[in-house]
Amino acid sequence: ASNLVKHFPMKRGYFGEKSYVKAVSDLSLTIYQGETYGLVGESGCGKSTTGRMILRLLEPTSGSVRYRGKEVTHFSEEELRSIRKEMQIIFQDPYSALNPRKKIGKAIQEPMSIYNIGDAKQHKEAVLELLRKVGLQPEHYDRYPHEFSGGQRQRIVLARALAVHPAFIVCDEPVSALDVSIQSQILNLLEQLQEDFELTYLFIAHDLSVVRHISDRVGVMYLGHLVEEAPTDVLFSEPLHPYTRALLSAVPEPNPKKRRERIVLSGDVPSPINLPSGCVFHPRCPQAIETCKKEVPILRELAKHHRVACHLI
Ligand code: SF4
Ligand code: MG
């Protein structure tokens, strides 16, 4: 994706002026085949919006999305159909994603009918195989969503996403609503499925430990901007951007030698309607200098695969 921008128009104000929620600003990132790209940031930073634009579930205000070398930004619905199958999304709340009156076997089978994959007999076999793949049992086929726990429901949603043989899945906070013990089971399952089905993931989360567990590379977002991106181990051992450092300092570190001083940011995240000038992080940045108020720092590659947007670095 390159130079993605998303502005949501707001109701006109008292004086008829038009205002926009600047959800995503000039964001460019590449997700490589077979990897898990973790996108982190506080809620409202634009990470879900980014995921939806990449899938073309939301139209970008400007910018472009390429998929396997093809420019898909201006694909029509008709043209999108062929790639929609390859791209799936799963959400935080698996319950709302499932029709409560539909048996889960049918729910998992449905996308196969929609995309005309196989016949009824093949469907049943495929669903049973998918149930097994996600750690459920054949006898679950005829049960309803309410008979399952949150973790099991996320397994069902995954089975349904896999029914159409996707290549790329956007996982939008898929474990945030689950207990910690269940979280790691689902993360391990996602890793297993990635291997079995050769999947590529965009993994969106606000929880850094979850992102660390599953991602190969991580991008950090703040107020609609990508501020830092690096391979996971590099980002966690040598974070460079002041915002990333503050985020990481809040994560409990079991190893006392690696423990960092806690950096507490002052103030709240500013409104995305009136973005701060210059570096959007400047009102809260402990290291801000005069330039930061005026000039927008560009995301630059400092070391191999390590990009940072900060005037000081
Ligand atoms: Fe802080 Fe300035 Fe760097 Fe922004 S550009 S993160 S305000 S030092
Ligand atoms: Mg979100």
UniProtKB/TrEMBL annotation:
Gene encoding the protein: oppF_4
Protein name: Peptide ABC transporter ATP-binding protein
Presence of keyword ATP-binding: yes
Organism this protein belongs to: Brevibacillus reuszeri
Annotated ranges, domain ABC transporter: 1-248
PROSITE patterns in UniProt: ABC_TRANSPORTER_1, ABC_TRANSPORTER_2
Record-linked Pfam families: ABC_tran, oligo_HPY
Gene Ontology molecular function, alphabetical: ATP binding
Family of this protein: Belongs to the ABC transporter superfamily.
